[in-house]
Write a structure and sequence with these properties.
The structure is a single chain. The protein has a single domain, classed as Winged helix-like DNA-binding domain superfamily/Winged helix DNA-binding domain (Arc Repressor Mutant, subunit A), CATH 1.10.10.10. The protein is about 65% helix and about 5% strand. The protein has six helices and two strands. The protein has a two-stranded antiparallel ribbon with strand order 1-2. A hairpin with a 7-residue loop joins β1 and β2. The longest helix has 24 residues. It comes from Acidipropionibacterium acidipropionici (strain ATCC 4875 / DSM 20272 / JCM 6432 / NBRC 12425 / NCIMB 8070 / 4). GO terms for molecular function: DNA-binding transcription factor activity. This is HTH_MARR multi-domain protein.
Amino acid sequence: MTEITDEGRVAEALFESIGQFRRRVRRRVGPAWGPSGHTRAEGELLRHVRRNPGTTVSAAAHDLGMAVNTVSTLVSRLVSAGSLVRTTDPRDRRVARLELSEEAAARIGDWRDARVALTAAALEALSAADRRTLEAALPVLDRLTGLIDADAHDGVAPTPDQEES
């Protein structure tokens, strides 16, 4: 058995803390798609498209850390379900752009608003010092995420190619 380093203990605590936070919010607010039948991966892609309207399959795959063919399959299912709209880029007809359908945009917006309201109410209960500490940690979490992504690509974060689907 290997000895757990200080970094290992922090990593374990980070997974536990973030996991508990996500589970408790999901328990209170519910999953983004409830009884709609969308999978968690589909919901993740839809939320990504909400934040990045006009994205491409390859850009979404890069940003979500998924294989392009996986995202392409998800896109096909979501277009068939009426949750995503795929349009041809007018500047490059080989490129497809992704947008949310009106129904999906409304549903994700409502879900996001509920999550934000729940979390904002909990943040109000923290001390000002705790809120500042938490806010200061957000860029560190972003850098940590970037390091993990870069590590998967031998230290070089990949750039998305234009895609043709």
